[in-house]
Specification:
Number of helices: 8
Distance between the termini: 80 Å
Structural class: alpha+beta
Strand order of the largest sheet: 2-1-3-4-7-13-9-10
Largest sheet: 8 strands, antiparallel
Oligomer: single chain
Number of strands: 21
Length: 448
């Protein structure tokens, strides 16, 4: 049975700036039931039931599906997209730093299918999406969020201004058993509603944070390099300017753009070191800490799932160093290492994954300073008896990752510090502060 003819306008701006005309297509009747895929998701629930696909539901993966008013640019990440419904009542766009939206299907005036694609395939399953919705009148709409090249990983977060975020779990009305699509039910109106895989921490947000921290007398800010597309890569040096021959700790973050909890961890960890306490003052007289909080500003800007502007995973480029971002990081590390035989004590690389975990190399405690990592993490564990410190010495320990290269080439303690996607943000702040304090106490034993 044929369905109604549905039209949609698509406006595209940015590098491509390709004008598109409206398209008309005849769609099959869609399922009116909220449980489109036969899988109901109650808030905080992950229960699923068996799924029988409904041929009447439009699916971008089906060969007979037609994208209404859509485009297929050579590199979708280089275009910003704005979709407008046929009646001009609803606008959906991703025209902001971190935005990610590839296509829009208008099924009815209140039901749309949004397609999100990664920058390359295959790719790690960090299926990032971020967009804004507005309507000329108050109404409820349904969005079918479809992933190509990945599956649903991030519970949506929502905002009315792009700065203050709240949990959006209640928006998820159904999910495909394979994770390839979820249905979001939104109440929208003239005021923009932001929907994102995680809260947005833009390049501007990170730069503002570095500028504010650099107002402290013991924090210096500078640009240490440029990305593929020429964006600045900023660094902070936290330490007493009068310190003589200090030891060094190197901290980096945001090699992978979607890893927001890791980005939060970097900032809270650095703030703990920059704080004004007796411990931090002692530490900064003996150690300087170099922080590169955002090593992939191009990927962050374009809402990429994993890679830089060249579609290269920066944490698989260590040893190859074909990308300007990893070349900058290597140069900074080698400079610190050359300042003295035992000048560089620790390298921390902050990331996000499904749970809190410290990824180590198999022989991390044989690296300089000997037994540091075991001592540090034991002290951290003792400080938080109700928190289980999770360690993994086998994860990617032989691959071209930062920690493997630092261990193999520099013979320095290297740790990948990961926070869970859904770890409470206040908990991240607390864990970062406590782990930073125990790192400082442990390292001081090697210098005092």
């Amino acid at each position: 049975m044929s369905g109604p003819s549905v039209f949609c306008r698509l406006q595209v701006t940015g590098l491509l700036a390709i004008p598109l005309v409206c398209m008309s297509v005849c769609l099959s009747l869609f399922v009116q039931d909220a449980s489109v895929w036969g899988v109901e998701i109650a808030p905080k629930s992950t229960a699923t039931v068996d799924h029988v696909p409904d041929a009447n539901v439009p699916d971008a993966n089906r060969p007979d599906a037609t994208a209404i008013g859509s485009m297929h640019p050579v590199d979708a990440s280089l275009a910003t997209t704005t979709f407008e419904s046929l009646d001009q009542a609803i606008q959906i766009d991703s025209d902001f730093c971190g935005g990610r939206l590839s296509e829009c299907f208008e099924i009815t005036p209140t039901r749309f299918q949004l397609v999100v694609r990664p920058e390359r395939k295959p790719i790690n399953n960090s299926a990032w999406y971020a967009f804004r919705v507005r309507s000329n009148t108050e109404r409820r709409i349904k969005l079918h969020l479809s992933y190509q090249g990945g599956t649903h990983r991030y519970t949506p977060r929502i905002s009315n201004d792009g700065r203050v975020w709240r949990d959006g779990q209640h928006l998820v009305s159904s999910v495909h058993p394979s994770g390839s699509e979820v249905v979001l039910q939104l109440d929208v109106g003239p005021k923009e509603l932001w929907v994102s895989a995680q809260e947005l921490i833009s390049n501007e947000d990170t730069e503002r944070w570095t500028e504010e921290l650099a107002m402290l007398p013991h924090v210096n800010r500078s640009v240490c390099g440029r990305s593929v597309q020429g964006r600045p890569i900023s660094k902070l040096v936290i330490g007493d300017p009068q310190a003589e021959s200090p030891g060094y700790v190197f901290i980096m973050g945001r090699l992978h753009p979607p890893e927001t909890t890791g980005a939060i961890g970097v900032m809270r960890f650095a703030e703990a070191i920059a704080a004004d306490t007796e411990l931090t003052q002692r530490f900064r007289r003996s150690f300087h800490v170099v922080v590169v909080p955002n090593a992939n500003p191009d990927g962050v800007d374009q809402g990429r799932w994993r890679c830089n502007a060249n579609s290269v995973d920066l944490n698989r480029d260590w040893g190859l160093f074909r990308q300007p971002e990893t070349q900058v990081l290597r140069r900074e590390l080698l400079d610190l290492k050359r300042r003295g035989r035992n000048s560089l004590y620790l390298v921390l690389d902050f990331h996000s994954t499904y749970e809190d975990v410290f990824y180590l190399t198999e022989d991390v405690d044989d690296a300089f300073p000997k037994n540091f990592t075991a001592t540090w993490l034991n002290r951290f564990d003792e400080r938080l008896p109700s928190y289980s410190v999770n360690l993994d010495k086998t994860h990617n320990s032989k691959r071209t990752t930062s920690k493997a290269w630092v261990d193999r080439v520099l013979n320095v303690a290297a740790v990948t510090y990961e926070f869970g996607d859904n770890t409470d943000r206040d908990s991240i702040a607390h864990l970062s502060r406590v782990s930073a304090e125990e790192m400082m106490r442990t390292l001081l034993r090697y210098r005092e």
